[in-house]
Amino acid sequence: MCYGEGKRMEKRKKQLIFLMTDTTRKDMLGCYGDARMRTPNLDELAEEGIRYENAYSCQPVCGPARSAVFTGTFPHTNGMVTNSVAMGANVKTIGQRLTDAGIHCGYIGKWHLDGGDYFGLGRCPEGWDSAYWYDMRCYLEEMTEEERVKSRIRETSYGDDMTEEFTYAHRCTDRALRFLEEYGEEDFFLTVSYDEPHGPSLCPKPFSAMYRGFQYEDSPAFHDDLMGKPLMQRLWAGENRKATSEELRKPGGRLELLLGCNSFADYEMGRILKVLKEKLPDAMIIYTSDHGAMLGAHRLSAKNASMYREVANVPLIIKGGERARVVEAPASHIDLAPTILEYFGQPIPKLLEGKSMLAQIYDTSVTVNDTVYTEFTRYEADHDGFGGLQMMRAATDGRYKLVIHLLDTDEFYDTRTDPYEVENRIEDPECAGIRNRLHDRILEHMNDTRDLYRGYQWACRPWRPEKKPSWENDGYTRQRENEEYEPRQLDYDTGLEMKEAVRRKKVKK
Fold first, then answer.
1. Domain named Sulfatase N-terminal: which ranges (predicted)?
2. pTM
């Protein structure tokens, strides 16, 4: 390639836009197979990039899911094991890490990581541009008391005075467009995190009426009697255990608005994507959702301690590498932080618990994971309900799923022969081999990530009689390695800097 005299090839800017919605199921995007879903902008993004079929949330509830995305550590590591509990003071986000490396970082939208209530504290955390900080408390503080109440009622969507300007999504998008205008000539990392389509699912016309009369097609998932499943699922189902498939799938305002608001969120993201295509065509774009929703499948609603595809198998679309590709191999939110760091040319810290996907983004024949993991501890510290304590650790290799409920019945599914995850084969001897391999991977993963809740109880399951309880468990000391922001930890036995973070524990006789 030739260049004019005195001209040199300009270094390509490193610019990454991270788009996130709340409570978007994978099948709520048209590109994932349901043509009734009107999401033209994300569908186009998938055509221009990579669509992941088997991407999983690290914990299918808002705060913990986001903690994994933005720190690269699992909730059991960063401390956010439930909503309304803050992460540990020594936990750093990718915004903090990139800002320290000279990358301009903006965060606009729902945060849910400060330990406050649903709306947040309204304060910009370290590492992000405070001029663009706009969590949901900031949004509410712009309003009168009457408007605040109105913003929390789904019927507002049907009012004649409802406008897109009233919504959180629109105001987030406006700020994102200003950020792109101001910083489009430099390296940056921008997150735009919508609360939509999460309830109350506010959206203006025509979106509020777009899915009137919609119902899901009948499937085995709506006929699951939950027998042979965990007790917590039967409690979770409640009165729905008596419902017919027709009753579970009947059209209704909540579902219609959820889907309408999802299309509205797509429209708002489309405003950003249009500008990116016109002005920043080389920017990398990542879209995902924190988790899905059951919506009557398995007689369940909302989300909880489950690895069912409706709630844990999230949409993930990445533009910036190969085009019009579909990746079937397992993927995880835990890998997003290291991917973003590598994209910006930053080293991946030892304590991050995922792996960069960048090589796969540029070449989809590359496999990053053979197994990915999902967990659960409880839904929210503020709420007594939602089953309370629900200790779950789960793994999938893309076909098989093993879900261990520490205080309940475990689950095992073959999603190739049982795509709707109705038949729990945890006790099936024909499945013992792969079931036990996934079990061993879960136990190894709990050790490798220093899972606060690890212990023999996860190993000694009724269907694994060869596993025996031990006071020493696996007999290792596993210390934290976070040498970027902390001094190296000291060895308890010597008082000197530890030589090995993982070592056999000295047992006193």
1. 16-345
2. 0.96
Q: Which of 112, 170, 198, 445 is catalytic?
A: 112
Q: Could you say which of 31, 58, 62, 124 is catalytic?
A: 62
- Strands 325-327 vs 50-56: parallel, antiparallel or unpaired: parallel
Q: Is 62 a catalytic residue?
A: yes
Burial (CB count within 10 angstroms: exposed 0-12, middle 13-18, buried 19+), residue 14: middle
Which tokens sit at 262? 């999802």
Note if 76 is an active site residue. no
Q: What is the rounded CA–CA span in Å between residue 47 and residue 53?
A: 14
Please check whether residue 234 is in contact with residue 313, taking contact to mean a CB–CB distance below 8 angstroms.
no
Give pLDDT tens digits along the chain (509 positions): 333 333 334 678 999 999 999 999 999 999 999 999 999 999 999 999 999 999 999 999 999 999 999 999 999 999 999 999 999 999 999 999 999 999 999 999 999 999 999 999 999 999 999 999 999 999 999 999 999 999 999 999 999 999 999 999 999 999 999 999 999 999 999 999 999 999 999 999 999 999 999 999 999 999 999 999 999 999 999 999 999 999 999 998 899 999 999 999 999 999 999 999 999 999 999 999 999 999 999 999 999 999 999 999 999 999 999 999 999 999 999 999 999 999 999 999 999 999 999 999 999 999 999 999 999 999 999 999 999 999 999 999 999 999 999 999 999 999 999 999 999 999 999 999 999 999 999 999 999 999 999 999 999 999 999 999 999 999 999 999 888 899 999 999 999 999 999 999 876 55
